[in-house]
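Changelog note: in this version the structure field was regenerated for every chain. One regenerated record is shown below for reference.
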Amino acid sequence: MMKKFFSVFLAVLMLVCSVPFVNAEQSTPTLYTVYGDGMLLQQNKTTFISGTGVPGDEISLQLFDGNTVIFESKATVGANGEFSVPVDAPAGGYKEYKIVLQVNGAEFKTLNNIVFGELLLASGQSNMQYPLAQAKYYQNMSTNLQKQNKWLRVLFVPGIPEYKGSAELVPAEPQRNIPGACWLDGENPAIYGISAVAYFFAEELAKNIDVPVGIINIPLGGTTIATWLSREAIDSDPVVKNALVSRGTYIEKDNWNESEVYIYHDMTANYNLKMEGIKDFSISGMIWYQGESDIMLGWTDEEYAAAFDLMQKSYSELFRFENELLPIVFTQLASYPYDDENTVLFNRNIAFTQIQQSQPDSRAVVAIHDVPPTYIPEAGSIHPECKKEVGEKMAFAAQGLVYNQYPTYTTATVKSTEIKDSSVYVTFNNVGDGLKAKDDTLNGFAVCGADGVYVNAKAEIISPDTVKIYNENVKNPVSATYAYYTSNSNANLYATHNDELALSVSAFVTDEAVGKHYWTDKPWADCDVSEMWHVDIDPYAGYYPTWQSDKAEVTFTDNGVNFKKESKGKFTASPLLVLEDKNRVFLDIDEDYTDYGTISFYVKNDSQSDITLKGIRFYVNAVSWYAPEVDGTRTPQAVIPADGAWHKITLNLNRIYLNGNEGGIGYTNERLDTVREIEFVFDSAENANLTIDNITFTPESEEAKTDFTPDFKNIDNILEFISAVFVNIIGLFVGIFR
């Protein structure tokens, strides 16, 4: 899919990057393709300029500031035909230098427009590879080839470099040269083919540290983390090696077939083609956006964490970080249905925070559930187009982690919890200047009791680093969650910096041991957002209204969702759970309501006359529905007075009536295991003006029992009478065998 993105730029990049490689047998030395005009080298560190030549020849290097030589060095071509000559970089700035290389005193290469600044590695899979040309708001710039900042420098490394003249072969040994690699600056039209995340990261970082920023652009869509690790590293780590062996994907060197290795999934493939070729650069850090493929291939949290540890350790050695680890800024993953249960995503994102916490001085992770996950059809919903927000978040993290501009540089995570006063108090690390809600009301929280059934909860910021989470119907909570569902863009808690929203707080669960039924969706229950993102397979993923109505106008106010009808009669209020054709339930919808004991909501009638709630219908298929009784009334109906005051209505999900037949049997919530639609049905004698807010559920009570006694007084017709008689017979048998 991502290959389509590069069709516009492929010809340009091939032309720009087509630098011939000359082998060591020729008398004139040749630099590897990763060096060229316009490159950016890491300031205040040593970089090695490498290539091939005749063994024994002397290679000399001069660095010019204008006409003045400010650094000189020499090296000898080794017996293997390779050389590496050092460059001690000056401090960075907005100035261009020149490097002149000589062999035995004769000039053979001049590199012009060299810049010194901050150089970082950008790697990962498709969401990192996603090009600037397809980023939101940049499509028109790409079409018009609008120039960007000339001080941005990018080493563009082809996603699949050729080996032996073919893009179909993968070497068993790491390669020193990368055919097709070349340097670009922001004014080059080919800049639109680089990583959008890396571009926005570099742009934001340069603005805040005030030196040029360069990127080694090296990602490839669809790749697993094992493809980016060397064989030497894998063989040194039993956990990672065993993970590959157990899946039958470990390849012995003797069994390596260059034409059969799959670059996207097979171990060391990307390392061998690309990583050795860039090792002579000095870098200040790395940004990493990867993990989707490993989720889909079933790598456990522990296995992925081991592979991440190994990547950081081995890359630290590769790029000469002595006695310290290479700083890595990485991001959590975008919302997508990675599994049938829609649970693996938020568990993996939580695991990412644990990966960060294991090496907090050299790692920063950013949560991105708050980034709009809109996408273009060519990319698919697994590739959100809003990359600017992700890049800027990573730049913020890098400012703290790599450049020590402030102490908070990673997403806020749980520091401690305390349960008291029927509430869960959560205290966080990494809150910056303090916690803050993006909107007036905090969203995205849930709590559970000892039964492990989570229900939506209210939350309040009670101190700069602490949130109180509670549901008035859960008197003895034992655990709380936040943003613990796949479609979680409604979650809105942030750390702040200079009193501005900074990084969004990560999803969490305070007690992983408690969890029978998680609150995995239902942002519609908050009644304060007009639309929500539904994770689904293409083309169904997207923003949809949270509420809809038959015959009433739907608007959202500060007090809830409002329904107005300019005539008398029935009207409905329905959270949108299915697509319009009613044949497809969204993949991220939790259809199981069997663990809930009640549903309650607040309602306000600003009409001129009373409005009747005819019932809440829980549809289990296209024609069958159950209406719960208004608590203690033996009827699903309630009158909402026209007094402009708020009234709370609670309905019992352990006494539900098939198709609203309150004269017959009252079933338990066990009938609600596959709820496809929920419909509030109202009836008004005049115009209607009704507001609903704060819909909450409570867990099922242990004392809840089915009452088989029918209510003959509520019988409205012969069918209800027959049903009541039938229920009496059932009740007799139940009594005998109980």
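Spot check on this record: The first strand starts at residue 30 and ends at 31. Residues 718-737 form the longest helix (20 residues).
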